[in-house]
Amino acid sequence: GGRILFVNNRADYADIVQECSESCGQQSYTDSSLVPWFAEQDFSWLNKSKPDLVICSSVNHPRSPTALLVHCNKYLIPSIGILDSDVDATHLTYVVPGNDDSTQKCCALSQDIR
Predict the structure, then answer these.
(1) Which residues pair with 27 in a beta bridge?
(2) What's the start-to-end Cα distance of the chain, in Å?
(3) pLDDT at position 37, please?
(4) Rounded distance, CA 40 to CA 74, Å?
(5) Which of the residues in the chain have pLDDT under 50?
(6) Residue 93 in contact with residue 76, Cβ under 8 Å?
(7) What is the pLDDT of residue 52?
(8) In what order do the strands lie in the sheet with 79-83?
(9) Per residue in 24-48, is it b (16+ CB within 10 Å) or e — as a string?
């Protein structure tokens, strides 16, 4: 086991991501209004709490947690995200190819994680 931080940036995925993180006994940010907060803050907490993995429900979205993913790279924290094929995967460690607008894809990833 290890520490996983689940990050959701889409209102329609909030329940799925919250349920998955709770079933794994892990921390999550499922309120999509928090994601812009990631861009405006000091990420030193990330290095201190040092999750073993960050999972993003969707990377291709106007409220994408790009700043968080950049800092994950800086602190050598691996990340996973659902990503459309036409989106830059630079900041992700592991890409789950698929339609990030698909609730079914998010559910399938959630099932695989559990």
Answers:
(1) 5
(2) 12
(3) 55
(4) 17
(5) none
(6) no
(7) 92
(8) 27-29, 4-7, 53-56, 79-83, 94-97
(9) bebebbbebeebeebeeeeeeebee
